[in-house]
Amino acid sequence: MSDIVETPAQPQSLPRLNERAPDFEAVTTHGVIRLADYRGSWLILFSHPADFTPVCTTEFLAFAGIYPELQKRGVELLGLSIDSVYSHIAWVRNIEEKNGVKIPFPIIADLTMEVARRYGMIMPGESKTETSRCVFIIDPESVVRAMIYYPLTLGRNMSEILRIIDALQTSDKYHVATPANWTPGAKVVVPAPNTTEMAEQRMSERNGYECVDWYLCKKQVAVEAGVGGADGVHQS
Ligand code: BEZ
User: pLDDT at position 11, please?
Assistant: First the structure.
């Protein structure tokens, strides 16, 4: 492990959950893109350490693999690294040539590190010149809803990324929470009562819920068309 760095060389901010995602306008492999271009759809903004590296190549193949599933859920993908747009173009062409897989999403060429700094993607304890494996899940209102930060050595799990999208969309639609290891089709958690009267009512009425006790009740909700375990993407 590298030495622990106490202070980042450059000031960075870390996005926070349920706050507006940091704004950007960036050069990408699909031309100039702004955060505002994604208003109205979900966005997964993710960073990778560098082009033409082995783990990143497996991740790009995997992100391309889940792209159709993301599209069904109204989610766009946007990659980022501190490489030039020419490097990105050469790498995605190489991925296609060697693997027969087209990379369908744009990649930010963040040579100035401006976007990386705004999203706290650089972990100086790991590398000062590469972004860590960060994932920001941003909703149609440009609000940060979930974040994952993985180290350079750890390739991301696509099933978990899809699971997060499904859980957030289910939670928003039905005003419920999702229990540990939830996958689409499994029961969801209904909000706990917050008065003694409501707790008594919960236990006497039940509303068809499956209750362990007044504060832990679950119910079944419908699985969205095209979403869920049946496609084999989720592993529970
Ligand atoms: C990789 O993608 O293989 C990689 C990149 C940076 C550090 C370690 C691994």
Answer: 74
Distance CA 5, CA 32 (A): 34
Q: Please list, in sequence order, all residues whose beta carbon lies within 8 angstroms of the beta carbon of residue 15, skipping any fewer than 6 positions away.
A: 21, 22, 118, 119, 120, 136, 144, 147
Look at residue 201 and tell me whether its pLDDT is greater than 80. yes
The closest residue, in CA terms, to atom 7 on ligand 1 is: 152
C-beta of residue 140 within 8 angstroms of C-beta of residue 148: no
Across 32-36, average pLDDT: 98
Active-site annotation, residues: 56
Residue nearest to atom 1 of ligand 1 (CA): 55
pLDDT at residue number 229: 43
220-233 b/e (C-beta count within 10 Å ≥ 16 → b): ebebeeebbbeeeb
Residues 145-156 as b/e (b if ≥16 CB within 10 A, e otherwise) read bbbbebebeebb
> CA–CA separation, 220 vs 185, rounded Å?
8
CB 234 within 8 A of CB 212: no
| Ligand 1 geometric centre to CA of 107 (Å) | 17
Q: Using CA atoms, how far apart are residues 70 and 66, in angstroms rounded to an integer?
A: 6
CB-neighbour burial class of residue 60 (10 A; exposed 0-12, middle 13-18, buried 19+)? buried
Q: DSSP letter at 128?
A: S
Has residue 171 got a pLDDT over 80?
Answer: yes
